[in-house]
Amino acid sequence: MTQLIRSDRRAFLVKSAALTGGLTLGVRFPAFAQAAASTAEGPEITHWIVIRPDDTVLIRIARSELGQGSFTGLAMLAAEELECDWGKVQAEYADVNEHVRRNRIFGSMSTGGSRGIRDSQEYVRKGGAAAREMLVAAAAKEWGVSATECSAAKGVITHAPSNRSTTYGKVAGAASQLEVPKEPKLKDPSQWTLIGTSPPRFDIPAKTTGKQIYTADVRLPGLLHASIAQCPVFGGKVKTFDDSKIKSMRGVKKVVRGEDWVAVVADNWWRANQALKRVSIEWDVGESGNVSSESIMQFLRTGIDAKEAPVARKDGDAEKAIVGAAKVVEAEYYAPYVNHATMEPQTATALFKDGKVEVWVGTQNGETSIAAAAEASGVPLESAYVHKMHAGGGFGRRGPHQEYTKQAVQIAQSMPGTPVSLQWSREEDIQQGRYRPVALVKLRGGLDAQGNWLAWHVRQADQSILITVRPTDIKNGIDPVNVRCFQDNPYAVPNFTNEYAMRNTHVPPGFWRAVAHTNNPFFRECFIDELAHAAGRDPYQFRRPLLQQKPKDLGVLDAVAKAVAWGTPAPNGVHRGIAVVDSYGSYTAAAVEISVKDGTQIEVKRVVVAIDSGYVVHRDAVKAQIEGGVLWGLGSAMHEEITLKDGRVTQSNFSDYALLRLAEAPGRIECIIMPSGGFWGGVGEPPIGGVVPALCNAIFAATGKRVRSLPLKNHGFSYAV
Amino acid sequence: MSQFGKVWVRLSENPKRGEPVEVRAMVIHPMESGFRLDNVGRPIPRHIVDNFLCAYAGTPVFRAKLHPAMSANPYFVFYVVAEESGDLVLTWTDDRGEAASHSVRLEVT
Amino acid sequence: MDAEFGRRRALTALAVGALVLVVRPAAATPETLAVALRETFGDRPIAQGRIKLEIPRLAENGNIVPVTITVDSPMTEADYVESIHVFAERNPLPRVLQVELGPHNGRARIATRIRLAVSQQVRAVAIMNDETLWSTAADVEVTVGGCDP
After folding, report:
1. Is C97's CB within 8 Å of B51's CB?
2. Which CATH class is domain C27-145?
3. CATH code given to domain B7-37+44-106
4. Whose CA is closest to A670, among A616, A584, A588, A590?
5. Which residues of B touch C65 (CB under 8 A)?
6. Chains in touch with C (≥3 Cβ pairs < 8 A)
7. Which residues of C touch A374 (CB under 8 A)?
8. Best interface-test mutation with C: which of B79, B96, B98 has the largest number of C CBs within 10 A?
9. For the domain bounded by A215-286+346-423, which CATH number is listed?
């Protein structure tokens, strides 16, 4: 039984006996800050559901809560089919060690690609449905009646003919002994009563009041703190270091060295970090000490200028059509490296004791964390334990990349029996990111004399992320993720060639929220705007005929156009931009209204985003993803850029790597949630796609200035505050 | 230029006559699989250790054929029955004809 | 080196050009594995049992996956393991390793480290001196590639 004793406003000291076999400190953190016990004191009805005698329902969640609402959404999917009382539902993370021991029974724990709901929904719903069937069968068996004569609603099972009823809690024990139905019957979406609504989310209250425990808030007996410095030039190593200056510093306990890092362990993080700054480290920077943003640009240019490049798609003959076109538009676009800049820097807490390793980490994938912990420490998987914490922002940073987990484990292994909380400083986080890759694109388009779009040719030169995580997906030199938006574009243009020239630098790449659907939509939807203007046509009307075969793209595009009354005169000084992007199984469009003062100060008055994700689970969470996606897009478009000099990242903190400020936020964000049913699309990333191009198209409408590279600040723009 | 680096061999202690001795052996070699791509997306040519042989007093006692799916710095643990004191000679050869060899004395009590 | 390594008693002789692996084959699929198994073992029946494969259920990136294979055999002149073959069904090439053993090993146990490109099933087959074949398999999830972007 876990007891949580609040010792101060933000930290919880845990005292308890072991809950599951093998946990050294016997700690099992609830995933939310409330002191309610989350122990499973009841039988499992399928591995997803535990039902206690008091009728409370514990639903296990395999994916991670990053603020996107999946912790609640996934519980709703199960609860809908379970027919329990939602007011009695609690959620907890499926234990990762148990998951491994039970041969990955909870399926994928990966939380990325906007897949948390859409990839799990079928088997999670089936888990709830199976559990319901088992509970009803148990009651029917007890009553000696047929299960078909029984019904279940809000945790109560009723046999109408004999006017008997019982509750889930009472039959749970018997139900858990029954065989799990292989093909439980799922509700038709028209029967949903919970899915599609907006019940209070499990994570929001604690996050609002400051009670939410994040990894850095975990307090364990004897806990020490570590700060780390990794080689500022990616690929470099530690040569030597001199820690003589810090040996007498207060609170400093140990200096630990890895292949490419040095960490200081102290009794609090501030002291650890201050001491770390006084350790002089000599780096062997390796091969990339001369790389700069300029050299990277030159390298990308070799991709654009290369005579040939692998072809990702070829329809008709774009070359010929462009040569014969009445009007040709040619443009080069660029987007820089950007950092995830999660509000919570990379953090992991680890304890190595008696041949076991325990890790607390806000991970996007419990499986990568446990595998990383086991490999870093050399213990077998079964001796590794990962306590998943809600992450303070994931955005793709915390899935495949587990350096902080491995570092924490290695530091802890150097001091067995002592738990160590490793937290990267903000500077370390900015400079040791896994960046959205830099991209240079050359686009050419051809129009006929009537201004119809006949052809386009796209040559991309950018850095592959897949090559670092799943290189076998790359065929013929083409990264299938990076060509998205071009290779799979929805426009019915008869001649199209998409070429892809891979150009990988020493900068470590990563999946930044929406990945290729951040820069590629900017390139594509702005270029289409250029074509429209060259044709003398309205950008919205220019697109429509070419989307006739894509009703869902057209649907969202029409929705935002209607919302801003596109085609009617805008209020004085207000200018509009529009864009449509489908991604991660969903269809989105954005319309942005701005006014511009003095030619440079942009006031974003209104952003309208429409999304068709097929179905919607937690409606308010979808709205939040749209709003957050808009802010994400607007901020990155204006401020975000990672540059390099001498092989290392120049930026270091929010002073030189700014995010959107409250005062810069748009006057209004309107969310048009229009699920058309019949498919499951993602929601975490799709809303971002159209925002940046719609904004840049509005800037052109307002100022006549065509922005072809980001961030906007480099063009003298700012947001009016 | 040879891609072979250092060799590391360990035998279990106090080998007794007639009992299996544990042999652990590793050689430093990149084991370039041929499936990796360079920084502009072109395949890096394959270069792997493709054969490993351990001979004991002149007789082959362990033979391995390695494919590109073997990890870098190929590592093996295997067993050899200790008969007479003698040399274990371990030889690694790669797909370009290069070889690395190491001899370790097996003293049997 | 013996080009017929590990196939001393293979029944089926395939034409030299039968399996042509050009520069960058697509990832091996269960079908390609079936071809490799057939090439190596012909039509001989492969039974489950006697051979044990220890491999972690999860691997972080698949570059260094430790494997230990043990066969239930006294390794005497009368009963010994002749060879062990390891396959990875979804690697670009399904073959991983072939090992030749004999009574001089005393113990039918080997350990090594292998590369797995993606999540997949790893299979180990032992050929005994009495010409019987024994097989086992285990699934490994390569977690870093699991995050579908």
Report:
1. no
2. mainly beta
3. 2.60.40.10
4. A590
5. 71
6. A, B
7. 56, 58
8. B79
9. 3.30.365.10
Question: Least CB-CB distance to C143: which of A103, A119, A365?
Answer: A365
Contact A471 B35 (CB under 8 A): yes
Please check whether the domain covering A293-338+434-719 is classified as CATH 3.40.50.2300. Answer: no
Calpha distance A205→A190 (Å, rounded): 31
Phi, psi for A294 (deg, rounded to 5): -70, -45
pLDDT above 90 covers a percentage of chain A that reads 94
Domain boundaries, chain A: 33-209, 215-286+346-423, 293-338+434-719
At residue A31, does pLDDT exceed 90? no
Whether residue C41 contacts residue B100, with contact meaning beta carbons closer than 8 Å, is answered with: no
- Span A593-606, average pLDDT: 98
The rounded distance, in Å, linking the Cα atoms of A370 and A381 is 7
As a whole number of angstroms, the distance between CA A90 and CA A171 comes to 19
Task: Express each pLDDT in A74-106 by its tens digit.
Answer: 999 999 999 999 999 999 999 999 999 999 999
Do the chains contact at A502 and B36, CB–CB below 8 Å? no
Do the beta carbons of residue A192 and residue A82 sit within 8 Å?
no
Q: How confident is the model at residue B2 (pLDDT cuts 50, 70, 90)?
A: confident
Strands A252-257 and A261-266: antiparallel
| Sequence spans of domains, chain B | 7-37+44-106
- Supply the CATH classification number for the domain A33-209: 3.30.365.10
pLDDT for residue B109: 81
Q: How far is Cα C46 from Cα C34, in angstroms, rounded to an integer?
A: 12
Mean pLDDT of chain A: 94
Q: What is the 3-state secondary structure (H, E, C) of A536-571?
A: CCCHHHHHHHHHCCCHHHHHHHHHHHHHCCCCCCCC
Residues of C in contact with B63 (CB under 8 A): 5, 99-100
C30 touches chain A (CB under 8 A): no
Asked if the domains at A215-286+346-423 and A293-338+434-719 fall in one CATH topology, the answer is yes
Is it the case that residue A454 has pLDDT exceeding 50? yes
ipTM of the complex: 0.95
Residue among B35, B36, B40 whose CB faces A502 most closely = B40
Q: Which residues of A touch C57 (CB under 8 A)?
A: 100, 103-104, 381
Given a cut of 60, is residue A37 above it in pLDDT?
no
pLDDT digits (tens, 9 = 90+) for B55-67: 999 999 999 999 9
Q: Quote the minimal CA–CA distance from B83 to chain A in Å.
A: 34
pTM for this prediction: 0.92
Residues A154-176, mean pLDDT to the nearest whole number: 97
Please answer yes or no on whether B80 and C97 come within 8 Å at the CB atom.
no
